[in-house]
Each structure stands twice: as structure tokens, then as C-alpha cells.
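dumping this here before i forget
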Amino acid sequence: MAVPTRQAVPDIFFTPEWNEAYAAHAGGEYQQFEWKSELGHIIHPFIKRPVPLVEGWFDTITAFGQSGPVILDAEEGKRRNLIDEFDAAFQDFCEQQHIVSEYVRFSSWVKNAEDFFPLYGLDMRGIVMYIDLTIDDPFRYEFSAAARQQVRRAQKNGVTVEYDFTGVSLDDFCRLYSFTADRNEFPDHSLFNPALLKESFRYLEGKQFLLNAKYAGKTISSALIVHHGDYMHYHLAADDPDHFRCAGNSLILSEACRYGMEHGFSQFHLGNASTDALYRFKRRFTKTEPLEILTGKRIRNSDMYGRLTELKRLQFGIENIGHFPLYRG
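structure:
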């Protein structure tokens, strides 16, 4: 289970740094299963969590973002054989480690679900939107007329954008993020505490930065951008509701595209569009077709899964029968 080289990993959500930074947010510890043979190389980063009700048993979930098992190298025509090898080895590992079940958020852009879907029950969880940075001018060809107008309005009104590569402005970001979370009624599991975000700048040095829109000396919008390989991500964003008219967020997205093109990224991911309002806002900045968000679920120990589910039902009841794993529902 050695950690692969940083260059081999296709996106930031597969890196050890990312998983270490966000393991606590998922309620467990980062581990990685790695399989190598003459047929190829697969890694599977995940967070191992103690299950409720029974000590000594665990389940796994991928860290915030999109990752899951991914083929780094495969002999031509042997991908299916390699995956079968990996699955048998990982099943043995799960039995040794008392792992009951897995929940995987596959990568919409790496498309690793195409390789591993026979092993998991897949669910479509919405769409993710992105800006194509390989075209000549995303501002002209990806942004809508309304988005371009917002960017120009921000510039005309004196809004500027500042970069923060060290996290020194995180207090401002967290202040704005609290407004955004309250306004949109973010569920508790999606909230990020300031300590975690500050610590992430240590883990992810050189792989993330803040873009802050400033107006009259005050931060009115802020976005945490993360990147690795070909991909850049609009990870978290926040706004001051008293300054929406300034269009600071639109200026940030325009500046992020410029940065991404200058640094050779091919895609700038804007995240999901879980509400109509979010879809309409993000759609202004891209004409590229969205990608599906796919999640996978797998029971690795059927007997223990049944026992845990029955214990949960008897002791506390199961509030959400559609949740996986059911004993956490």
C-alpha cells in the first residue's frame, strides 16, 4: 500500500495531501489501497471510518470531492483482468480490516466509473459544470453575454481581484462563507470549519489559493481554488449579500479562467448545480455540456451489514431508508 508519486495521480482529489487534509471532515483516517501487477497499476484512496453501534468494524467513504479507484497504468487489452485482480485483493483487504461497506464518489472528468461500474451499484447524483480552458478565449466563447456584462460592470465599479496563496485572508473568506451557508441552508455535513481550512494550506501548499474580490478596501467575494494535473476546481465560494450588485464573484471566475489558461489547465470545474438558481448562475459562464456525478456503493460483508442495520433499526430507527449504508440512515 505504498503511496504513488504525485505526478502519477490524475487530479487533486486522488492525492495523499488532499485526503489527509479532509479525512477529519469525513470522520475517519486516510488510507490508500494500491494494487500493482504485470497487468498494471490501480490506486484507491479512501477514508476509513468506525461504524456506529459495534466496535472494531469500519466502512469507507471517499474524501470530499471526486475520486475512487483509478487505473494509473494498464496493459493494452487487459483492463478488465487488472480490475478483477484488484477487486479480489481489495476484498481480502476489507475482510482483514473488518470493512463492512464502501461509498465512492467517482470522478466525473477522470471517468473512472466507466472502468469500475461492474463492481458497484451506481447512482446518478446530479451534474457538475466546467469551463473549457483549451479554447482560444473562454471569456468570449464560454461566457454568456450577461456574464461578460457582469464582469465589465465589476471592473467599471472599481472591483479588483487579489490572490492569496498562503491563507492569510481566510478569516475574510470564513466570514463570507458563513453568510453563504446561512442563506443557502447548507447541511451540516457540507460545512467546513476555519481550523480545517487553515490546516489545508499546510497540506496543499502550491495546490490551492484564494481569489478575493475587493471593493472600497473590503473583501466582498472570495473563492478557494484547488488544482492538480490538468484540472482546476472552484472548490468553495462565498459572497457578501450586501454587495451582490458589485458582481465580485463574476470577476473572480473571469480571473480564475485567465490564471488557468496561463498555467496550462484544460478544465476549470465549477462544481455541482444542485438548485435551479445555482444552475442558472453557473450556466452563464460555460457553454460546455455538464458531466454526470456518479456515486458507487458496495457491501463488503453482508452478514455484518445486516446486523448493523437491524441494530440501528431496533435502537434508533432508520430515518432515511434511501441512505447508504443503511445503518447510518
